């Protein structure tokens, strides 16, 4: 097909064919002139487009399907070329993504330099072989690192939240943006702002935790970090807030299940992080798969129009999750067929469809049949074009492969990954000061299915990485004792999910020879690449005629239980019988409830999925080079039967069950240290304020131990009496501070309308006069308390 291309660099008047009347019209062309505003350029470009070109801008095919990689060369597919020439493609999803879904492996995938070159090839063809030369928006997954081979893999968001270090997380986001943009990726599908209500949900690992305030603080940092000072910088990417909204409250913890939530809770809890991120300037947003009170989020006019655009003033792009529009006709069953689903979605406020199948197949015909007004198409296209102009894609569409090779996986970024892993690890138990271990004496047996499988500690939404890029727990311990390798013994013992006990004997033999046993257990979100397994009798890697999938967490992997999978608990129990000190390290994507381990282990570390530097970080903590400072952002129950167990439930939810009370095993905000902190002198000044006034809260925190340590000072607010029922306590402030032994510091908070308000009877924010309690301390159940009286203005 021969494409008549528009070529110019300054304003010109050119003839265009009006596809409706068949007549040629003369129009001014300015969209490639950067002397005009982004809005003017987008409006001008829209006026020049055919209906086919407009619809093309609203579809996002899978990026890994538009090229073939052979012997280091990139060849674009004929199907992609035809799509470009017949109307265009607005965006591509996951050009650089590698995992079993894409079928891209370490061997067939692209290096950092090759990835940038591939994106350039795609962009060049789109620009040079389409009539108007519109660049493609390249969108990539980046929730805890750019999802590409060789990119730095940071800890999963559940671990990032556990650091309570907003500044360090913002720094990570800057690193992720640098890596992604260096390869030509201009949009990221993060951050995940879902509030977790049932940790059986497989996507718990992708979330920061159960508290909307904490999530909001990280949401703002994410937008500021990823988007930088300006989207058109070469180190900035457009954020996509997801999943809008209520996704973490699905029925039974089942992925994309119905959400049963009242409007007040929706406004006060689940929408809060999104609102804060929109106010921070987020560029795009992704509706969730689920329905709320019978209305799918994909077609929820109240959410997408009334709240998002009218109340919040959001002007950015709305893109669906993959397959979400299909669900309207096959899942939610609110649409008769694909065309009906497409029309419903775009009318509700959807601008672009990830996967692009429904929009691509039906929008054009819907307009031709009079089922959809082209003006609605124009509105969506304008938002897509506006984002592309803001990103500077028309002026600088190409990446620098050499720059990508330097930036991706740099030492600077690896240092950030290690620091985050260190601060996200939580010391849950340390009986008789079992930890830290001595570097000078004693043999250590490192046992368990997660001791030496690097991919298991990376979490979901991670591309395969070269083994040398990932340090396992075994590798981290060995590096600490490199001069005495004979002190470290290793046995996998079992797999994550399999029932085989064939590795028990070897594991027990290693444990018998050791002075201390480190059990590395938990879960796996590693998708199956079919690349072999571990010999349970020797611990060696081996290739077999079938692979083992140990995945028991991640998207679509929801569980009925919070217990360890397979025979892991049995392995720990057998090792315990030997009478050796047992340290349990959990590497996992959701809380684990194992009462036997809580009662019998000498020490327990919760590491979540700590990323590529996790092995070093865990070893640093085991041997005392780093003092643990992580705090829980999600309550860990004693038993799955306690769910829901999140800390900020309503006062009226009851005290206990017949078998036990309703308190979690480990509460929100909990985490031990190798030192000890004391709290004193909590003051609120003034003690009486007006509803529009503010008070200063101060508390003295002292390190009364013998080690330098970091403490997360947490402030909670309790409304003593209110017109609408309230949670007993709500987090409204926190500071992470580092103190030397004997050092003290006065930590201050401000309390005002933002900390005291709630969604009132009329569904509007209100600060009600009355008595409040201000609580400050180590975690939600260990606080000092003071009173604050609020009077009417």
TrEMBL record:
According to the lineage, what is the superkingdom? Bacteria
Q: Which InterPro entries match?
A: Cellulose_Degrad_GH3 (IPR051915), Fn3-like (IPR026891), GH (IPR017853), Glyco_hydro_3_C (IPR002772), Glyco_hydro_3_C_sf (IPR036881), Glyco_hydro_3_N (IPR001764), Glyco_hydro_3_N_sf (IPR036962), Ig-like_fold (IPR013783)
Give GO terms: molecular function aspect only: beta-glucosidase activity
Gene3D superfamilies under this entry? Glycoside hydrolase family 3 C-terminal domain (3.40.50.1700), Glycoside hydrolase, family 3, N-terminal domain (3.20.20.300), Immunoglobulins (2.60.40.10)
Give the UniProt keywords, A-Z: Hydrolase
Q: In what residue span(s) does the Fibronectin type III-like domain sit?
A: 711-780
- SMART domains in the cross-refs: Fn3_like (SM01217)
The family database entries (Pfam families) matched by this protein are listed as: Fn3-like, Glyco_hydro_3, Glyco_hydro_3_C
Q: Which GO biological-process labels does this protein carry?
A: glucan catabolic process
Family statement: Belongs to the glycosyl hydrolase 3 family.
State the name under which the record lists this protein.
Beta-glucosidase
Which organism does this sequence originate in?
Paenibacillus lutimineralis
């Amino acid at each position: 097909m021969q494409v008549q291309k528009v070529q110019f660099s300054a304003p010109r008047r050119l003839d265009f064919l009006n596809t409706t009347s068949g007549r040629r019209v003369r129009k001014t062309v300015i969209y490639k002139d950067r002397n005009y505003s982004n809005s003017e350029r987008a409006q001008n470009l829209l006026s020049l487009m055919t209906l086919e070109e407009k619809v093309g801008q609203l579809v996002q095919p899978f990026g890994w399907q538009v090229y073939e990689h052979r012997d280091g060369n990139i060849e674009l597919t004929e199907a992609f070329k035809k799509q470009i020439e017949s109307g265009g493609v607005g965006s591509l999803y996951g050009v650089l993504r590698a995992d079993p879904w894409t079928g891209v492996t370490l061997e067939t995938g692209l290096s950092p330099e090759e990835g940038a070159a591939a994106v350039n090839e795609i962009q060049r063809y789109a620009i040079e072989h389409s009539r108007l030369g519109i660049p493609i928006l390249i969108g990539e997954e980046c929730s805890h690192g750019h999802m590409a081979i060789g990119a730095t893999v940071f800890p999963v968001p559940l671990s990032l939240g556990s650091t309570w270090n907003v500044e360090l997380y913002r720094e990570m986001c800057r690193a992720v943006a640098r890596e992604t943009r260096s390869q030509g990726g201009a949009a990221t599908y993060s951050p995940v702002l879902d509030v977790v209500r049932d940790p059986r949900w497989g996507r718990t690992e992708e979330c920061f935790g159960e508290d909307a305030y904490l999530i909001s603080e990280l949401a703002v940092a994410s937008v500021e970090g990823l988007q930088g000072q300006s989207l058109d910088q070469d180190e900035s990417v457009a954020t996509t807030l997801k999943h809008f909204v209520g996704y973490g409250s699905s029925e039974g913890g089942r992925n994309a299940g119905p959400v049963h939530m009242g409007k007040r809770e929706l406004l006060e809890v689940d929408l809060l992080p999104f609102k804060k991120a929109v106010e921070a300037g987020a560029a795009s947003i992704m509706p969730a798969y689920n329905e709320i009170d019978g209305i799918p989020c994909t077609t929820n006019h109240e959410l997408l129009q009334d709240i998002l655009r009218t109340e919040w003033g959001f002007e950015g792009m709305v893109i669906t999750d993959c397959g979400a529009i299909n669900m309207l006709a096959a899942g939610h069953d609110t649409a008769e067929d694909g065309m009906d689903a497409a029309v419903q979605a775009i009318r509700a406020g959807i601008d672009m469809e990830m996967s692009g199948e429904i929009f691509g197949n039906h929008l054009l015909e819907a307009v031709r049949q009079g089922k959809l007004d082209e003006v609605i198409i124009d509105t969506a296209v304008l938002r897509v074009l506006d984002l592309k102009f803001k990103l500077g894609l028309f002026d600088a569409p190409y990446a620098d492969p050499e720059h990508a090779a330097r930036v991706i996986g740099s030492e600077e970024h690896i240092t950030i990954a290690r620091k985050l892993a260190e601060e996200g690890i939580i010391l849950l138990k340390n009986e008789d000061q079992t930890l830290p271990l001595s570097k000078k004496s004693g043999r250590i047996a490192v046992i368990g299915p997660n001791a030496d499988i690097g991919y298991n500690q990376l979490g979901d939404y991670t591309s395969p990485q070269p083994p040398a890029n990932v340090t396992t727990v075994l590798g981290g311990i060995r590096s600490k004792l490199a001069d005495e390798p004979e002190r470290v013994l290793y046995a996998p013992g079992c797999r994550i999910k399999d029932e085989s006990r064939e590795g028990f004997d070897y594991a027990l033999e290693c444990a018998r020879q050791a002075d201390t046993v480190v059990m590395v257990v938990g879960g796996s979100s590693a998708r199956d690449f079919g690349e072999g397994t571990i010999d349970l009798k020797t611990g060696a890697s081996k290739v077999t005629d079938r692979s083992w999938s140990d995945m028991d967490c991640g998207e679509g992997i929801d569980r009925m239980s919070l217990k360890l999978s397979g025979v892991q608990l049995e392995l720990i129990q057998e090792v315990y019988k030997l009478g050796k000190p047992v340290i349990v390290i959990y590497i996992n994507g959701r809380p684990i409830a194992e009462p036997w381990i809580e009662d019998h282990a000498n020490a327990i570390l919760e590491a979540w999925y700590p990323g590529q530097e996790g092995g070093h970080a865990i070893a640093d903590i085991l041997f005392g080079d780093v003092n643990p400072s992580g705090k829980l952002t999600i309550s860990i129950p004693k038993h799955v039967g306690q769910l829901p167990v999140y800390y900020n439930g309503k006062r009226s939810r009851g005290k206990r069950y017949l078998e036990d009370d309703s308190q979690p095993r480990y509460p929100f905000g909990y985490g031990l240290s190798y030192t000890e902190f004391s709290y004193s002198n909590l003051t609120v000044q003034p003690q009486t304020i007006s509803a529009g006034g503010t008070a200063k809260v101060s508390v003295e925190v002292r390190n009364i131990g013998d080690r330098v340590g970091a403490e997360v000072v947490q402030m909670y607010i309790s409304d003593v009496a209110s017109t609408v029922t309230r949670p007993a306590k709500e987090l409204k402030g926190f500071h992470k501070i580092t103190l030397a032994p004997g050092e003290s510091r006065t930590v201050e908070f401000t309390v005002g309308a933002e900390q005291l308000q709630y969604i009132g009877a009329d569904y509007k924010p209100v600060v009600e006069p009355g008595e409040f309690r201000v609580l400050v301390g180590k975690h939600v159940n260990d606080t000092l308390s003071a009173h604050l009286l609020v009077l009417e203005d």
